[in-house]
Design brief:
single chain; 172 residues; alpha+beta; Alpha-Beta Plaits; five-stranded antiparallel β-sheet; 55% helix; 16% strand
Length: 172
């Protein structure tokens, strides 16, 4: 009979997995307390939840939400970086953290329900954020409009200049 603590943990993990846009499974073993604390602070400041859980409980929660293909990631000590907003936030935090430390090692990821192996981490970590993509889109949309505006305004300003010159010649 499972303990109440484990039942609550599975329920909590199930809710997290169900709401998550991105889940990064990592191996944190080898990080000291100071490093883990620093990593947690980075995750919190980027709206990412960092959870350490037993592999068996994660498997049960994944089964409850119908998530398949993660058994390969659940060996050894496992921590999950969960993002409910931007799927690239955890990757950017981990990538930045790996510049100074050799852990956490990414075991695998789930982004919008699609499972990715650890080999895909660098590609995902280098993706632009949602805000960066939106600003590029606005810039791309704005460029043709400003060109159209200047093209349409150019003959009118030229005509006005010519009329002013004629007016000044007639006035003198």
């Amino acid at each position: 009979m499972p303990s109440n603590k484990n039942l609550e943990s599975v329920k909590s993990l199930t809710e997290k997995l169900d709401k998550a846009k991105a889940i990064y499974f990592t191996d944190y073993l080898g990080l000291d307390v100071v490093s883990i604390t620093k990593l947690r602070k980075e995750f919190v400041s980027n709206d990412v939840e960092f959870t350490i859980a037993k592999n068996t409980l994660i498997k049960l929660a994944a089964k409850d939400v119908g998530m398949d293909g993660i058994d390969d990631f659940l060996s050894g000590p496992t921590a999950m970086a969960v993002s409910y907003e931007d799927p690239t936030n955890p990757a950017k935090v981990i990538k930045e953290f790996l510049k100074d430390f050799d852990k956490p090692a990414v075991k695998g990821m789930i982004l919008d329900g699609q499972v990715f192996p650890a080999e895909e981490f660098d590609k995902i970590a280098n993706l632009p954020s949602k805000e960066q993509l939106l600003s590029k889109l606005v810039g791309m949309l704005n460029s043709p409009l400003s060109k159209l505006s200047s093209t349409l305004g150019s003959p009118v300003s030229g005509l006005l200049g010519t009329l002013e010159q004629l007016n000044s010649k007639k006035g003198s």
